[in-house]
Amino acid sequence: MRKNINKLNSTFSIQSFEGGYDKNFSYILTCLKTSESIIIDASLHPSILKLSQENKPSAIFITHSHNDHVKYIKNFDDCFPGIQIVGHPESKLNTSKNNYIPSMHNSTVKVGKLNIKTLHTPGHYFDSICFYLENIIFTGDTMFVGRTGRTISNGSDIEDLYNSIYKTLLSLPKSTIIYPGHNYGEVPSISIRKNIEISPLLQASDKNDFLNKMKDYEKNR
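Request: output the structure for the sequence above.
Response:
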């Protein structure tokens, strides 16, 4: 397990923890004005994140419901009964329990003084969400350092992924820093501008070019 702490400005801090099934990341995002914090993805056990009742998170934001990203939700609920879970309206996690908060595309969720925008980004999985605030975005498995997510499982769609990448994520300011769901790159996080420079999958001229680049990627990976 590896832990990194980034204080990007006077508004918030990010703690990143690596572990889980396959170099998964879980993040703690904290509003520095109110000390309210949330978890991005329940990929690691709460004990690894060294959480306690004194610094308990108010919510878990789920980028998508693949098992490696939601594995420890019950453990969080056991440690912090009733902790809110924020995710896609059609997620399997959206049951009759009243602690699930479905978040619509382009809606805003408040964490302390922070305003976090929900961006639905289907493709890798139908319920994929990215969480965007100020100059950062948590991309889950939609975009990694050096490449996009894959579309090989039930519930994924390569044309949806193209739209999510090229019409949503790449339309954000190029200085935006991405925090992905896995540590698959040479660095744990990267700006969108730099990611475009290093990734052929982010340099497609159109949808057909992207589909061909993805086929080549899968063939040669």
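Residues 207-220 form the longest helix (14 residues).
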